[in-house]
Design a protein that fits this description.
single chain, alpha/beta
Length: 231
Amino acid sequence: MGDHVPDGREGDVSEPANEVDALDEEEGRLLFAKECRFVAGSERLEGLPPFTLPEVAFAGRSNVGKSSLLNALTNRSALARVSHTPGRTRQLNFFDLGGRLLLVDMPGYGYAEASKADIKRWQKLIDAYLSGRPTLVRVMVLVDSRHGLKATDRDLIKRLDERAVSYQVALTKSDQPKPSELEATKAKVAAELAKHPAAHPEIVATSATAGIGIAELRARLAKLAAAAPSR
């Protein structure tokens, strides 16, 4: 098991499965201290930006804390809109981080009250994006640490495996469970991911409000940006 992307993907990068150190965290801090600006948003594949920078996409169930995590990573209060209304993000939103990395905010999935037409349209967009972006180097699959993997998470993971898109799980809201409960969830998710070929083995436990795991995740994303081939 390990990172891999389809043969011929120009965004092909490799990252060893190990802990980050203080130097890695400093590289992550410096990267995420750079300007982060919105560059594109679209509900259609033809409206997406050209293939320029390596891309890391953030995906997760509605209300998993995706926008809060993006804001915490970039030290912004409103880079991505935080809403208590599930299904708020309805397009792919691209943010340029210092001319080195594109952060991609994907529509949340598993929102039961969305119309069937909306769900079908978003699903088509996401599938096309995952299959057609050679610069996509990682999908961060955000999972609520209080609940672990749900059926909709497993559906996304299956599609990522089928497309050989490298992905990594980040647990959100990890300040809320008891430490023993968090470790149990982390171990259970890790055991399940071990069966999936495109899954990165390291799981990052995060909390946007408490700052848990933010430095580690920045460091890992900085490694991806540094490893990606220049264009």
